[in-house]
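2.7 Reproducibility. Because tokenized structures are sensitive to small changes in the input, we list the exact sequence used for Peroxiredoxin, including any N-terminal residues retained from the expression construct. No trimming or masking was applied before prediction.
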Amino acid sequence: MEADLNIQEVNAMPRIGDNAPDFEAVTTTGKIKFSEFAIDKWVIMFSHPADFTPVCTTELTGFAKRKGEFDALNTQLLGLSIDSIHSHLGWVQNVRENTGVYFDFPIIADIDMKVAKLYGMLQPNESETAAVRAVFFIDPKKKIRLVMYYPLNVGRNMNEILRSLEALQISDKHKVAMPLDWKKGDKVIVGPPKTLDELNARLADDSVEKVDWYLAMKNI
Ligand code: BEZ
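Resulting structure tokens (single pass, no recycling of outputs):
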């Protein structure tokens, strides 16, 4: 019941650019302290509403099947739901028996909702007992770089999660920005000039493809 929830706690919602809040938790692969977890890696931390439910089963199956692509992007997966560790283990084993897909990444058993509240995953007007479908993109400095929240009744898009992760990494590496619908191999946006000297340099620069001085693209 909402009356039982501490509204200040529930309203905590880490934002882009914030340091990822630290926590300790029990997971399906053992205990973790987040600040010491996946050192030097990106982390995709995602919540699902409940074990043994259909949409969640398709989503975690998607993460498991494409784990190799996350590994290739130096990224650790970390799941979470407000379920017990026994429930998680039973579900993982059930899906493995039924489909052969094995959720071998850690899944937090957040039975006291501590982490869900810390990360704004508990959104009481959607559900007071189940986490919404959140995805936090956390960089190797443990900074939050992108946040997605989906409701209980709509599954996420794995292509978009991977596309966004790759976009963040390439943007960091090349100091560029990504246009609408960018995907790997497409041109990227070079930042607009910030001074008149930079403006003049941009106008004279034939190495970038210019729509105008403030919108220029290049291949990387
Ligand atoms: C599902 O994963 O199917 C689901 C979970 C909680 C509420 C609604 C749907």
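The chain has seven helices and ten strands.
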